[in-house]
Amino acid sequence: MAWKNRSGAEMNSRNLVSRKLTIFLCISCFCAGMLFTNRMWIEPEAKDLSRPTGTEAEKLKLIAEDCNTKSSVRRDSKDIIGEVSKTHNAVQILDKTISNLEMELAAARAMQDSIVTGSPISDGLTLPEPVKKRKYLMVIGINTAFSSRKRRDSVRATWMPQGDKLKRLEEEKGIVMRFVIGHSATSGGILDRAIEAEEKKHGDFLRLEHIEGYLELSAKTKKYFTTALAIWDAEFYVKVDDDVHVNIGTLGATLSRYQSKPRVYVGCMKSGRVLAQKGVRYHEPEHWKFGEDGNKYFRHATGQLYAISKDLATYISINQHVLHKYANEDVSIGSWFIGLDVEHIDDRRLCCGTPPDCEWKAQAGNVCVASFDWSCSGICRSADRIKDVHKRCGEDETALWNASF
């Protein structure tokens, strides 16, 4: 019995120890489990909810702004295009201003060099005046000859304003128009006196220091641009023949589109064949300069009507003594610009045919700038036919006076 009692006591003691140990282990495991569980849950939570860094904040801001921007992209795209267009126009205006300043600087240097060296200078080349000149849109020089009195009268009776209207055209619209002619080989002869009488009556001539002659058209054109530049400060200088019909308002509106561009050469561009055969019309004595027989000229405007910007007229004025003259005036003009950074603008409204061509275009709302017959290099029998061309192809009488350039 005693043995059994001792054995039972020992068993009870062991059970008690095991039970306490078990409880302790359970509690320890529970605590360890709670600690491990808390760490597993707290750290990810802290990581997920932690305050974003500066870079992350910027990314989130950009994403938010991008989301807001997408809704207004279509609305803002037009504004962006408008701003780009304004910037492009501003760059062109700045480029033109720089070009004008460069030309004026070149003129001043040429004048200074001539004073220092005593070398001849271009006629009409002057230093910029202290008093600013009136600014004009364009000067239209109508090339004419001593024998073309009937042509001049037909132009005066159709598309060229007369008297007070001619002055009003200059003052209100900034458009100067003059018949351009030089002098006869016999100074003060009957031909010159006839022009002087005509000038006294109409007041619409620009006299050049130039001896008239068909083979001297290139020299005359060069002198015209130089003289016109010295007298009038204009955006454009236009040359037109006296057997061509012109709509002045349409011409002004056309050239106005190119005011912001520098070095502009506007006309009906062509590249005709170089004629080497003697005795034919438009024969080119220097055909060998253009390569083999049958070659074509470089790009240039047809001579009936074309316009150049002020900086190109200044270039001609400065360099007139070294600019080469070919037999054909329109080829000469093109050759002076071929090596320059010049924009050649080909506008076919400057070379429409006579009725029905220009008439159909006018009825369709596409009024021509100039009309003539290619077969005659002008209007055939222009003194007789230009009135009919004007009646059928002329712009509305109010188009010029209501135009805003």
UniProtKB/TrEMBL annotation:
Membrane topology value: Single-pass type II membrane protein
Give the protein's cofactors: Mn(2+)
How is this protein annotated for GO cellular component? Golgi membrane
**Under which EC number(s) is this enzyme classified?**
2.4.1.-
Localization in the cell: Golgi apparatus membrane
* UniProt entry keywords in alphabetical sequence: Glycosyltransferase, Golgi apparatus, Manganese, Membrane, Signal-anchor, Transferase, Transmembrane, Transmembrane helix
Q: Which domain of life is it from?
A: Eukaryota
- Membrane-crossing residue ranges in chain numbering: 21-42
Enzyme class, UniProt record, top EC level:
transferase
GO MF assignments: galactosyltransferase activity
Q: In which pathway does it act?
A: Protein modification; protein glycosylation
Q: Locate the DUF4094 domain: which residues?
A: 18-110
Q: Which family does it belong to?
A: Belongs to the glycosyltransferase 31 family.
**Protein's UniProt name:** Hexosyltransferase
Organism listed in the record: Artemisia annua
